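User: Can you model how CU-O-CU linkage sits in this protein?
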Amino acid sequence: SAIVEHTFVVSQMNMTHLCKETPVTVVNGQIPGPSIEVTEGDSVTVHVVNKSPHNITIHWHGVKQRRNCWSDGVPMVTQCPIQPNQNFTYRFSVAGQVGTLWWHAHVSCLRATLHGAIIIRPRLGASSYPFPKPDREIPFIIGDWWAMDLSVVARRMEKDNFFDYFPSASTINGKLGDLFNCSGVPEDGFVLGVEAGKSYLLRIINTALFSEYFLKIAGHKFTVVASDANYVRPYTTDLVVIAPGETIDALVVADAPPGKYYMVAMPNQAPLPDTQTPEPSTRATMQYSSSNGGKPVAPVMPDQHDVVRSLYFHSNLSSLRHPRHPLPPVPQQVDQHLFITLGLGMACRQGFKCNRDDKNDNMILVATMNNISFQKPTAPLLPAHYYHVAGSNRGDLLELPDRPPRVFNFTDPSLIPIGPKEKALETTYMATLARWFRYGSAVEMVFQSTSIMQGDSNPMHLHGHDMFVLAQGVGNFDAAKDRARYNLVDPPLKNTVVVPNLGWVAIRFVADNPGVWYMHCHYEFHLAMGMTAVFIVEDGPTVNTSLPAPPVDYPSCGRPNRKKGS
Ligand code: C2O
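Assistant: Here's the modeled complex, given as structure tokens:
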């Protein structure tokens, strides 16, 4: 196995789209940033040089980071952020995972411009893929473009915890495409040149802050072969649905009459991108080398808010067991059950006193799990956990309850406690939510959406572990009925699972990676508003099941680190 080394210089520059110059924070001057291409088993070293005016961390989304939580890149959870003019080197290896993952800044909003692909190829080469070897492989990154300075959006969010900020456009591989224009001049779009009869593996990533996307190519079908760096049983469809944080690898064969075909990515999430833009979708072009001009063919898109499409697409994924690609067993017994409702509420701003009828600015809108909103810690949790720093142990953290405070008909819109808009939201509070797991415990979680989330599906992402997705459905989870539907044979293994709009999803995972792991909604605004918790996996009985010491150049801030046991 090799060492793959990169230097990521983070800087701020101006970029112009839609006739407007916007300050953006980027890696090596490009959006998307560089792809990291590795073979399974390789070690990756990334030197991050922060020349931007912002605090930065980089998260390697979906990389399991076994016994390596120190490199997970979550500010104030796994590390102090890398401050302007500081450097930090992330080191990790990629084992037991093949396919597409990605990296992104884990600092509010900046991931819209600070992201790139991670491509993991099998040790035995492309001929060991459990599907026909593609002629070419192409990263296909769906994102959103913000004409506003995102560091300003982030600052306002921190202050008010409220947003009415929307992306200005959607992008494919950083390009807005010809549905967008500046004074009538169309924006550049991504062009995929193909040859008739050849096959292409699209490594599709949704990096958007905002929306799940529908993706279609006129005249062509996708065969989905992997998701979140796990193979899936090949599944043929004309529509890919991908939520923020997910990756989908899909084969496309150039088997249509030679010509030009639009590849359209349409955000399906309310609210829509802002009204200055004529059309929220973006498109790229698939262009046959043998074609001689002509008008591109456009695909027929589903209704933008047809939420059932997402449920249908995700329900059709199953894992592929193959002698060359072993998978961990699906846990058949469960040690801990969690039932987690996702919602919104009103909470008193940190450091203020509010009374129940406080109509002033001190009550802010927050996003919740089991009706509690995550409060960002002021010193990083991982070193506190590792060194058992007094006063930053369990006492400062609140245990995430294993069920919501009351049983409710979660998804009946008529049963939201309605009043004037603010009164529709339950009163809640903020706390640094954590849940402890003994090493090796098998955990079942049911994520239940609630009426207040209407219009949103929630992509829930767990760091450091993959989750088996056992079942999903609309309405309220009914344990007796829905457990009987669990797929315990070949459920897909994912790091980001989609909770259907007004529905639920049930997952299982084994907590076998010691450390402090973020678990959150991958909509940037839900994350920033507190739909978050940390999962603390205790050390196992041996050295090989315990978290080793932090790297030597581990950045510090706040409280000094202490020696273990002192
Ligand atoms: Cu891709 Cu914690 O995120």
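A couple of observations from the model: Confidence is low (pLDDT under 50) at residues 417-423, 560-566. The pocket of CU-O-CU linkage is lined by residues 59, 61, 104, 106, 245, 461, 463, 518, 520, 522 (CB under 6 Å).
User: Helpful, thanks.
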